[in-house]
């Protein structure tokens, strides 16, 4: 038997005031926590019937991930309808203990009973608990009335109940008018609002983490009076932490905590008597000194005070001790507000979702400029693509060294010889008439060396050189056919030399020059009365089946960019929103009210859906009506794929948010995903242009199949059943579910730390 149990046994066996059966039952109760309620049904020596326990913690330890033990085999018992003050120095583990009780943390080992139940089926987290965290944990952009509305709705209150509670707590806590923004309140006022919304729904258990810090002494007095009132009349159980030791006199029991253990747990009067002092402050100091001097584990005897019934005398003594503060008033009971009891026992999921969605809409509307940016930045990005990408080249500087002309002649001067005639002079001018603005800015050079220097200096992209006897040699070549002398080939060639560092410009230039040459030969044949078909290659491209001839790259780029942007932006917005809620503590607070992680995500998703719909419609309207893009295929299917891609981004944002603790981390992670995604998903460069292994990798990226799918619909008009189309839907939907489930699982694990 452990020393712990031995001392308990000794104490119980030596308690003459109890019958043998009661002693046995108490011992069982002590060793088997499941009997905690029976424990208090036993009369003590004074004949006082014990109260059932609201919170019982046994042998609790807590070690955070960094390996530091915070709670050390802690035992705690809080009776129903009492105030329990938890006192202790900073960092001793009070908040950790409270977090584990309300369900946003978990003991590493140990047992917890709430209202006699071991699991979390007693409405905690949920409507049965009111939690005021140490930080304000309020939405700064809310007005005070919106704050009441949100937390009231989360806890299943209707509009009328919320209104009554707001009026009551505004008077009790001297709050400003309801239409004042939380962000503009002082720290003390924020704390009061936070206090009010923790208890507005009249929970059975109130957990208040330092509610009176920075609060005016008069208001502090009102708070304590009200808490005493609540425990007395509403049977509310209150656990409160405070650094103002003396205000704990009004509580029924005080737990003195040090280094993760309770040094003592007793009524204030008993503590004063046991430590032979007149102030709680002195009693706490004495206990801490003793503990420090002996540098031994906290005495186990404090456990036994669990069984020492707080007598009526103790309670009255506690309540009638003077309150801290100048007024020196007694803890008398203020009149109770006539607030009807909760209609529903537990706020159902629908009600919570309604509260969460309303909250998100309030917050979005509060920051309209940000909302407009969120909606229109992706739209602007697509429109930028439309106006800037894939257009034909223009104003490309091209050098010309035309050796058919001498210093004193120009093509314009000789136009009568080549323009519209079948003459064989100055055919180079006929060719050059197809090298025109706005595609080209022609720069004439006298020699090849000068032209080369021009390229090297970056003045021109390349140059065309035309031999001296080009016209004659070209004629020979044209009429000579296969019998032409080999030297004529070189002498009749128009030669290009280019800066090919920009592949896209070089390829476009070459293609344009080929076209120019073909048109020149066609002109020549026409002017000589020949059939222009002779200018065609024997390799011919007829009218395309999909798309238009010489379609610009936009036909390829726009659909995939659409998917890329509407996937990417929600990652950032959803991820940042989520991290922000985590950081501000509002998420944790909502979770204590019984909100589930999936409900939070679902509510975010509804708002993102609204944004996604507006965004997608705007993009399509602009692309079709303003920029005249030709979109074929089912618009509704494309719209649907747009929305699933948006959701895929939203859920990826949740997943990022689940991992991150700072907004900047979300942004950096999103960027890390963005570039591989746009580069490998075929958004800029087709998969056909990638090595085989990269193509395989690309198939597994979130946007690859969706890009192919939307392109197939918007450019080719293919239906859902086409093998290029439905995989896009399947992959976005699959990723959406995967991200969502992963985000919920990771968040749930992280919140139950
Ligand atoms: N998530 C966490 N991960 C690691 N360590 C933590 C975490 N939360 C708290 N701690 C550590 O646990 C210890 C107890 O912290 P806790 O907030 O419970 O103390 P406290 O008694 O409430 O202090 P205070 O009165 O200042 O609020 C501290 O040393 C703190 O640094």
Automatic annotation (TrEMBL):
Location within or outside the cell: Membrane
Main location class: membrane
InterPro entries found in the cross-reference section: AAA+_ATPase, ABC2_TM, ABC2_TM_bact-type, ABC_transporter-like_ATP-bd, P-loop_NTPase
Bilayer-spanning residue ranges: 368-388, 562-579, 600-627, 639-659, 666-685, 726-746
Superkingdom per UniProt: Eukaryota
KW Zinc (keyword) present: no
Residues in the signal sequence: none
ABC transmembrane type-2 domain segment(s): 502-750
CDD domains per record: ABC_DR_subfamily_A
Pfam families linked: ABC2_membrane_3, ABC_tran
Protein name: ABC transporter G family member 23
Native source organism of the sequence: Orchesella dallaii
């Amino acid at each position: 038997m452990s020393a712990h149990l031995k001392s308990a046994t000794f104490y119980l066996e030596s308690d003459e005031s109890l019958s043998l059966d009661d002693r046995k039952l108490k011992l069982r109760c002590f060793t088997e926590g499941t009997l905690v309620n029976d424990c208090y049904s036993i009369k003590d020596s004074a004949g006082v019937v014990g109260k059932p326990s609201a919170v019982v913690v046994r042998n609790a330890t807590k070690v955070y991930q960094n390996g530091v033990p915070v709670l050390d085999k802690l035992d705690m018992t809080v009776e129903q309808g009492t105030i329990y003050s938890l006192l202790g120095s900073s960092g001793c583990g009070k908040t950790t203990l409270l977090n584990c009780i309300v369900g946003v943390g978990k003991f590493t080992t140990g047992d917890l009973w709430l209202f006699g139940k071991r699991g979390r089926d007693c409405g905690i987290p949920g409507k049965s608990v009111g939690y005021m965290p140490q930080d304000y944990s309020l939405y700064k952009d809310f007005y005070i009335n919106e704050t009441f509305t949100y937390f009231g709705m989360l806890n299943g209150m209707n509009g009328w109940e919320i209104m009554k509670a707001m009026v009551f707590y505004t008077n009790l806590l001297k709050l400003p008018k309801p239409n004042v923004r939380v962000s503009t309140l002082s720290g003390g006022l924020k704390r009061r609002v936070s206090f009010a919304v923790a208890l507005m729904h009249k929970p059975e258990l109130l957990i208040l983490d330092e509610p009176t810090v920075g609060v005016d002494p008069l208001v502090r007095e009102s708070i304590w009076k009200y808490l005493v009132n609540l425990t007395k009349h509403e049977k509310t159980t209150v656990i409160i932490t405070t650094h103002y030791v003396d205000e704990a006199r009004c509580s029924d029991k005080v737990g003195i905590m040090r280094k993760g253990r309770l040094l003592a747990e007793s009524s204030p009067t008993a503590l004063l008597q046991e430590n032979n002092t007149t102030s709680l402050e002195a009693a706490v100091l004495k206990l801490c000194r003793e503990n420090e001097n002996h540098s031994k584990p906290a005495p186990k005897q404090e456990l036994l005070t669990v069984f020492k019934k707080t007598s009526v005398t103790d309670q009255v003594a506690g309540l009638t001790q003077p309150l801290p503060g100048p007024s020196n008033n007694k803890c008398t009971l203020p009149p109770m507000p006539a607030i009807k009891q909760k209609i529903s026992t537990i706020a159902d999921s629908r009600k919570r979702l309604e509260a969460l969605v309303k909250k998100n809409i309030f917050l979005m509307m509060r920051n309209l400029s940000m909302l407009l940016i969120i909606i229109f930045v992706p739209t602007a990005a697509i429109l930028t693509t439309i106006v800037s990408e894939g257009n034909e080249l223009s104003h490309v500087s091209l050098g010309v060294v035309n050796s058919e002309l001498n210093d004193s002649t120009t093509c314009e001067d000789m136009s009568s010889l080549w323009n519209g005639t079948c003459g064989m002079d100055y055919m180079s001018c006929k060719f050059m008439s197809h090298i025109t603005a706005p595609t080209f800015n022609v720069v004439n050079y006298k020699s090849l060396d000068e032209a080369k220097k021009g390229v090297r200096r970056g003045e021109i992209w390349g140059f065309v050189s035309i031999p001296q006897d080009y016209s004659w040699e070209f004629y020979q070549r044209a009429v000579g056919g296969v019998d032409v002398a080999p030297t004529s080939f070189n002498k009749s060639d128009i030669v290009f030399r280019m800066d090919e560092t920009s592949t896209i410009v070089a390829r476009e230039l070459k293609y344009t020059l080929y076209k120019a040459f073909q048109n020149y030969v066609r002109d020549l044949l026409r002017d000589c009365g020949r059939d222009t078909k002779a200018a065609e290659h024997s390799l011919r491209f007829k009218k395309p089946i999909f798309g238009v001839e010489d379609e610009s790259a936009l036909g390829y780029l726009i659909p995939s960019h659409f998917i890329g942007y509407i996937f990417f932006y929600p990652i950032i917005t959803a991820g940042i929103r989520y991290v922000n809620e985590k950081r501000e503590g509002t998420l944790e607070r909502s979770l204590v009210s019984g909100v589930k992680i999936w409900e939070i995500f679902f509510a975010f998703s509804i708002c993102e859906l609204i944004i996604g719909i507006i965004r997608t419609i705007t993009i399509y309207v602009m692309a079709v009506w303003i920029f005249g893009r030709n979109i074929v295929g089912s618009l509704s299917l494309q719209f649907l794929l747009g929305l699933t891609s948006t959701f895929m981004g939203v859920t990826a944002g949740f997943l990022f948010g689940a991992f991150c603790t700072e907004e900047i981390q979300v942004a950096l992670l999103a960027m890390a995903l963005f570039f591989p995604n746009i580069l490998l998903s075929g958004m800029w460069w087709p998969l056909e242009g990638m090595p085989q292994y990269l193509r395989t990798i690309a198939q597994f990226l979130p946007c690859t199949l969706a890009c192919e799918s939307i392109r197939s619909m918007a450019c080719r008009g293919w239906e859902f059943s086409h093998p290029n189309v439905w995989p896009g839907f399947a992959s976005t939907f699959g990723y959406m579910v995967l991200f969502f489930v992963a985000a919920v699982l990771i968040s749930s694990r992280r919140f139950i730390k």
